[in-house]
């Protein structure tokens, strides 16, 4: 077994393994642990009671976090004409059509957000096998296939995130940085959780969210009492 560092051992001493923490107490605990030398992200894992083999039960959506994520996203925009000019004026990381598709195919740059105008989807649709697994395939439901390129870019810059479950029925999402206040992190988490609850499939019965765990990038995970959100 790999030896644990003193930092990890020290952090684990502050965590009660079987305890379910009130939300704000859990957030404060993560903030007070011995930190890495960089500004860590705070992540949530929502364990959802769905059958991922049934397409109608899979969860996906987008939400604008009130305090953003604290992360500067790399944004690529597929657009032509006026929409392309708007994207360039807003200083996104890349704008184009076929040449931008080639950059993505060759994996020269990894983008966090990809936005497309409808007239470019014949090009973008071919990138599904690359962008789909990363969760960044443009989608009208997420507002990333749109004629309103300006709005979509602005939302991406200030903290709009997409969420979806993995094959195990877990939704992983960052909702802020360790240097955010407890209140900011709590409000971001609450907005995100409410959006996930609203995405509950109509035919699903019984318990929807089984568990929520929080962690920082380098810190241990804790379980929180999601009923208090």
UniProtKB/TrEMBL annotation:
Q: Organism's domain of life?
A: Bacteria
From the UniProt record, which GO molecular function terms apply?
rRNA binding; structural constituent of ribosome; tRNA binding
List keywords of the entry alphabetically. Repressor, Ribonucleoprotein, Ribosomal protein, RNA-binding, rRNA-binding, Translation regulation, tRNA-binding
Q: Which GO terms describe its biological process?
A: regulation of translation; translation
Any single Gene Ontology cellular-component annotation: cytosolic large ribosomal subunit
For the keyword Transmembrane helix, the answer is no
UniProt keyword rRNA-binding, yes or no: yes
Q: Name one Pfam family in it.
A: Ribosomal_L1
Q: Member of which family?
A: Belongs to the universal ribosomal protein uL1 family.
Recorded hits in NCBIfam families, A to Z, give: rplA_bact
Protein's name in the database = Large ribosomal subunit protein uL1
Q: Record the organism.
A: Buchnera aphidicola
The upper taxonomy is:
Bacteria, Pseudomonadati, Pseudomonadota, Gammaproteobacteria, Enterobacterales
């Amino acid at each position: 077994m790999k030896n644990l560092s003193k930092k990890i051992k020290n952090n684990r001493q502050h965590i009660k393994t079987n305890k379910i923490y009130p939300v704000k107490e859990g957030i404060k605990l993560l903030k007070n642990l011995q930190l890495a030398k960089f500004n860590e992200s705070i992540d949530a894992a929502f364990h959802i009671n769905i059958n991922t083999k049934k397409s109608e039960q899979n969860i996906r959506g987008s939400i604008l976090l009130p305090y953003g994520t604290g992360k500067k996203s790399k944004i690529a925009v597929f657009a032509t004409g006026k929409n392309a000019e708007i994207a360039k004026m807003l200083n996104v990381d890349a704008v184009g059509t076929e040449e931008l598709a080639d950059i993505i195919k060759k994996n020269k740059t990894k983008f966090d957000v990809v936005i497309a105008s409808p007239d470019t989807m014949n090009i973008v649709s071919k990138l599904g096998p690359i962008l789909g697994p990363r969760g960044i395939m443009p989608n009208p439901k997420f507002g990333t296939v749109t004629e309103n390129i300006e709005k979509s870019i602005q939302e991406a810059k200030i903290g709009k995130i997409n969420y979806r479950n993995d094959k195990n029925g877990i939704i992983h999402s960052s909702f802020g940085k360790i240097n955010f206040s407890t209140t900011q992190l709590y409000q971001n988490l609450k907005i995100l959780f409410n959006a996930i609850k609203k995405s509950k499939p109509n035919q699903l019965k019984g318990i929807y969210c089984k568990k929520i765990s929080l962690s920082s990038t380098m810190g241990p995970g804790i379980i929180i009492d999601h009923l208090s959100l």
